[in-house]
Amino acid sequence: MHRLITALTLLAASGMALAGPAMDASGAKQATNWHAIIMFLIFVAMTMGITYWAAGRTKSTADFYTAGGGITGFQNGLAIAGDYMSAATLLGLTAMAYTSGYDAYIYMLAFFAGWPIILFLMAERLRNLGRFTFADITSYRLDQGKVRTMAAISSLVVVVFYLIAQMVGAGQLIKLLFGLDYNIAIFVVGILMMVYVTLGGMVATTWVQIIKACMLLFGGTLTLLLAYWQFGFSLTTLLEKVEAVHKLGPKLMAPGSLLADPITAISLGLGLMFGTAGLPHILMRFFTVGNAKEARKSVLYASGFVGFFFNVIFLMGLCAVIIVGQNPEFFEGGVVGGKIIGGGNMVAMHLAKAVGGNMLLGFLAAVAFATILAVVSGLALAGASAISHDIYARVIRKGQATEKEEIRVSRFATIGLGMLAIVLGILFEKMNIAFMVGLAFGVAAAANFPVLILSMYWKGLTTRGALWGGYGGVISAVLFVLFSKSVWVDVLGNKAALFPYTQPALFAMPIAFIFAYIFSKSDTGPRSKLEKEAFEDQYVRAQTGFGASGASH
Amino acid sequence: MSSVMYERMRVNPKFQKLVSERGRFAWTLSAIVLILFYGFFMLVAFNPGLLAKKIAEGSMWPIGYTIELPD
After folding, report:
1. Cβ separation of B60 and A116 shorter than 8 Å?
2. CA-based nearest distance A40→chain B, Å
3. Which of A189, A216, A406, B15: CA 20 to 30 A from A46?
4. In this structure, is residue A9 part of a structural domain?
């Protein structure tokens, strides 16, 4: 074990050392980047220390997948917020607020709205019924082999697409912020992720997410306070100035072109809302707390942090309209209104530099890097648990695998996923990957969520219905995205899209629900009768937690 | 064995009271969120102009931002 730690740490270190020559090539940017690199190295050192500590505590499968159920509601709330607020949130949504104003706020609201639903309808039952993966719940009274395979496949689809999006984003971001080569950045992220997850399991992953969430909240809030100060902390002053110079003028604070068409707007709302409730790495976090009460608390804290941070980001974007958008220093060739240096996603970073100098820029850049690491670690753990717990231990070995074997498989699965992420990250470097996060949410909303919610709430769900609903959801969501403009035209280069909308949820979700309903209703086999009867016991357990796995620490 | 325990709990009136009260509370809250959220999205989709209006004459606060703030 310790030899493995040393080997992997050395690998990671050599990745960092290689960065030397690449830095020189980036010329003028180099001086500013040292702050970021030093702060990032501090973060890595800290998290490596935690991983070392966590490795000593990770002995059983429960330790590995769920930190032994010993995380408190508050800690888990921070970790969920850390899982949910990716670098795309910080950079992408600030940029969106900067360019389209109120539309960004609508988008954030849709991103946020899933949380209350998870809190009211899901958190408690998830905790009471599940142990390591959400497939534990969907297969609770159904055919273990078939339903778990289905849930594991749709989990892996979500994880892989989300992972590619994060890796490509990481490479491009780090290239820009740190002046590192794209491939080196991908390797650094992939290798560090493998170290955290294989050695420290859920304990290390949780703490990486907690530290990163605190850094993100602190960095974002500080940047906003410094920027907002220039407007005397008055929204009225800010909006007056912003509307006066922004090219959208008074339309900035009105719903605009982003959601011009009602079908897209509603489909996006559905996808983001119920996609959140179907993301395997988010669902997995509910099993890390001791009981249903802590599970509810963690959602409450998480939504508090996420909601607060969305407001911070929105105001940051608006402040940037004046502070960055009116400063020639941040435009290529010094032309205000031209192309922003480093592209639109750099608005948040430029704002940090304008109000807090190189120190704040370095800090925020390090936070962005740490954010990607934390998110990919959570994803890798969720993917690895689908492979080792669902497919290996339950389907292939039919529950006969020892804990040791299961943990070993999940470590190999993590390394496999890490290498896959590195390879795919390099392959997709030049591709337009905007559709991938949307696809991940679409599959989560159309495949994971319907089967999960039906298995918890509808007595009539049978194995046949769950399989048709689940596979119907995955396949239709993937096909809708494939035939939409963002893949069919933008990636594959065809002339016209076969499916007119970019968001699949409004169409794929009903397919999943209707399939699950029809094929359950028409299922009259002897097995289906037993499955329906088993709902009664499941229902009592879901409500009371009686029989649920407790905390082992 | 555990099935017997589950059966005993299920018929306990205290369990039934807890479940029905808690269930009603959760569904009420969910309904409020869903109605507000999709109501808002319908507004975005079909009457975006309304959200752009300011909450009062001379104020810079648009209705749309104000109603979303409590999040």
Report:
1. no
2. 32
3. A406
4. no
Domain-located, residue A533: no
Query: Do A497 and A480 touch, CB atoms closer than 8 A?
Result: no
Whether the per-residue pLDDT at A308 is higher than 50: the answer is yes
Domain around A329: 34-51+71-431
User: How large is the ipTM?
Assistant: 0.80
Find out whether A444 and A113 touch, Cβ atoms under 8 Å: no
For residue A112, give Cα distances in angstroms to A251, A293, A323. 24, 21, 27
Domain count for chain A, please give it: 1
Q: Is residue A92 part of a domain?
A: yes
Residue of B nearest to A110 (CA): B37
Residues on A contacting B at a C-beta cutoff of 8 Å: 102, 105-106, 109-110, 112-113, 116-117, 120-121, 235-236, 239-240, 243, 250-251, 253-256, 259, 261-262, 265-266, 269, 273, 307, 310-311, 536-537, 539-541, 543-544, 546-547
For the CA atoms of A485, A490, A493, A494, the dihedral, rounded to the nearest 10 degrees, stands at: 10
DSSP 8-state code for residue A470 = H
Q: pLDDT, tens digit, for every residue of A155-211?
A: 999 999 889 888 888 888 887 778 778 888 899 899 999 999 999 999 999 999 999
The CATH number that applies at residue A358 is 1.20.1730.10
Contact predicate B44/A106, CB 8 Å: yes
pLDDT tens for residues A69-84?
Answer: 889 999 999 999 998 8
Structure tokens given for B25: 């509370």
pLDDT tens, position by position, B1-51: 467 888 888 888 888 888 889 889 999 999 998 898 888 877 777 777 777
Task: For residue A264, count CB atoms less than 10 angstroms from its CB and return exposed for 0-12, middle for 13-18, buried for 19 or more.
Answer: middle
- The distance of Cα A529 from the centroid of its chain, to the nearest Å, equals 38
Inter-chain Cβ pairs, chain A and chain B, closer than 8 A: 104
Whether A130 is in a domain gets the answer yes
Residues of chain B positioned with their CB less than 8 A from the CB of A121: 26-27, 30
Q: Give whole-number Cα distances, A431 to A25, A28, A435, in Å.
A: 24, 28, 11
- Residue A225's pLDDT is what? 94
